[in-house]
Amino acid sequence: MTAPFTRRAFLGTAGATTAALGVGLTTVAPAAARTAPHKPDPRATLSPLPLSAVTLLDSPFRANMTRTLAYLKFIDADRLLHTFRLNVGLPSNAQPCGGWEAPNVQLRGHSTGHLLTALAQAHANTGDDAYAAKGRHLVAELAKCQAAAPAAGFTPGYLSAFPESVFEQLEAGGNPWAPYYTIHKIMAGLLDQYRLSGNGQALDVVKGMAAWVEARCARLDEQTMQRLLHVEFGGMNDVLAELYLVTKDPAHLRTARRFDHEEMFGPLSQGRDELAGYHANTQIPKVVGAVREYEATGEDRYHRIAAFFWDTVVHHHTYVIGGNSTEEHFGPPDELVCRLTDDNCENCNSYNMLKLSRLLFMHDPSETAYMDYYEWTLYNQMLGEQDPDSEHGFCTYYTGLWPGSQRQGKGGLVSAPGSYSSDYDNFSCDHGTGMETHTKFADSIYFQSGDALYVNLFIPSEATWERHGVHLRQETAYPKAESTRITVTEGEGRFALKLRIPGWLGARGRHAKIRVNGAATGVKAEPGRYATLQRHWRKGDVVELTMPMAPVWRKAPDNPHIQAISHGPIVLAGALGDREPNTFPAIDPRSLRETGEPLRYTARADGAEVTLMPFAEVHHQRYTVYWATPAPRQRPRLLAHYALDGTLKDTTGKWPDAVLSEGADFAQDGGVGLNGTGGHVVLPRGLITGLDELTVAIRVRADSLTNNARLFDLGFNRRTFFYVNSRTGSGRSRFSMKSYGMDGEDFVDATGTLPVGEWLHVAVVVGGGSAVLYFDGAEVGRRDGLVMSPLILGATSQNFLGRSQDTRHPYLHGRVRDFRIYSHALDAAAIGELHASQS
Ligand SMILES: [Zn+2]
């Protein structure tokens, strides 16, 4: 959710990202790539077993759901109706809510939509009429508010907790806080009340809202409409297309398509990843809507958009726990650990990615990739977003991944990373999606087609497959146990049982085993596919699926020496107590030991023993998911050398040529001339990967000095870098390095600045926890006790001479030549010789 008071300034860092990394990679992506682009059917091939047909048995999922159910019973509907009533002049003496539902917050009303959905799911899944009754009360009262809209001066059909004038601001080019986002939540809640809880009045109210949306948008030309779509609008196309699938009223589909955001859909339909810099959760619901529009229209383009987006996000923008985003935004593809903070992985994003995965799966069940991702994200992020100590299922907003992040404390302030929500004083988007997530675990365990039942998730449950009059019971301690056991408890018939054989099994070439009534089946159980057990099933038949698990180290795509560890589908995190590391703890992978308790290991990190446990179980303490793993042994050598004396070649022959950019050019009397207005040199990606010590040297002639102009800057973005500049505000040249989430940076100030108009040999040597800066072979600055090692930087994607990672900084004005990187820390004598030599 874009929140004016949590949103942080964001400067896109889209840059050259085309070059290969030049290192062996194991993806951290939690699902294998889809291989076969099947021609999917716009009519979904599968449907889920309805919530009413599946009951959760004891498990962490049921425990989470129980807490959220308690909240749904507890919450006072009239407090959530308060601002709706006041908005149309109806009386209310309820106590106003706080947080994002406070009477002066523009997003007010969105939580009522989430509540309607959660109540409908809870009713469908438990059969308890108390949830339906609360839903009926809310719907009836919202209907009264809608009926009162014209008398309050609003357009008929308008239903909201804020005045309609906000939409006038939006249409006039203003930037109010996401008014259609809130309308979407209310409409979706009403539609769920109809679909899941059988509330006919809810359908009437949502149809009235749809008519209002249609009237509102009909007055706008396409250009105005597209401009308006820049403001977060949730899944308006989604709910309207879904409404069309219920009503078959062409107006609903027509209105849905007015919300097709071409700035996003255009590149996606052509298979281009232009997501960097976009607010993530503003985009995901639009793409969920594209699947619904595909169902409604049969137009392939919608499916292409959704399938490409899913592949792109899951394989190039997703952290090892299944979530995406840094401070709510997408970054450049495959740049992940260079963007770790306390504010990664907004939980709503994953809630929406799971919706998308589930819908895509229902159109293309040939592979397990969609549901592998679903499982992975469910266990590693969603299950853990909720506070197990809260009676009401409070959730965090972000799931931070910078080492030392935590889920903690009592909610209230949404802006405190990792803090849990509360009864009435939070109402963030994630409190809302949390209510939904934790009341629908039962909806993706089993799916059906005509004569096949798919078992997707290994969550203890009972299910009734009405079509065949069959009852099943799934019992398992998975993932603490490696197997699950499915028993036919009632009925009989000939059908196929299709078991998901998770793609993660493929990581170690392990094989699933399937036994029916104790006997091996010989059925193919290929990871990433569904194993089909076709037979005449009878009461008492027992299927046992065993999925061997082992620890797997997972390298980050942007830094092979930063790794996470998983076991089966579970990401393990280091439980750090109240220890807050300054950067990635250094782990010794060889020290990993089983504890005897399932999914718990110990290892040595930063010289002390640390416990690793399922990430979702780490609460009320600091944790790390990513670790620094040992650097490869480097032969001391000149690693790269760009003389830049009329040639752009690397003299070691290992690297691609440098590129002169934006007016940089060879000077007749040596080196590359930089004009100070944009000219710079671009060096290949990955130059300093895998170095825990190094030397970087350059000859530079500054023709004028400006603060922050860089001699060189090797990094990813304006918070992950390794640079030397010509001058800081204090009048000294500085070496500095930093990784994104670090407090502060490791830096060394020289005794002075660069001379003007004279060539200077500048070298920085980093290693063994120290950094030394040299000018013309003489030490001019030193720092010991560095926080980070250069190993933390990884395969830096933006390596510049004369240009900063930060687009606000000036360019260098002068000359550069003889740029060198050594794979080791040169001593003072060697630096002296280097200075004296002529390159
Ligand atoms: Zn959110």
UniProtKB/TrEMBL annotation:
Keywords from the UniProt entry: Signal
Domain (Non-reducing end beta-L-arabinofuranosidase-like GH127 catalytic): residue spans on this chain? 53-443
Question: Is Signal set as a keyword in this record?
Answer: yes
Gene3D superfamilies membership: 2.60.120.200
Residue ranges constituting the Non-reducing end beta-L-arabinofuranosidase-like GH127 middle domain according to the UniProt record: 453-549
Single GO biological process annotation from the record:
carbohydrate metabolic process
Q: Which residues form the signal peptide?
A: 1-31
Q: Pfam families annotated for this entry?
A: Beta-AFase-like_GH127_cat, Glyco_hydro127M, Laminin_G_3
Name the chain's protein: LamG-like jellyroll fold domain-containing protein
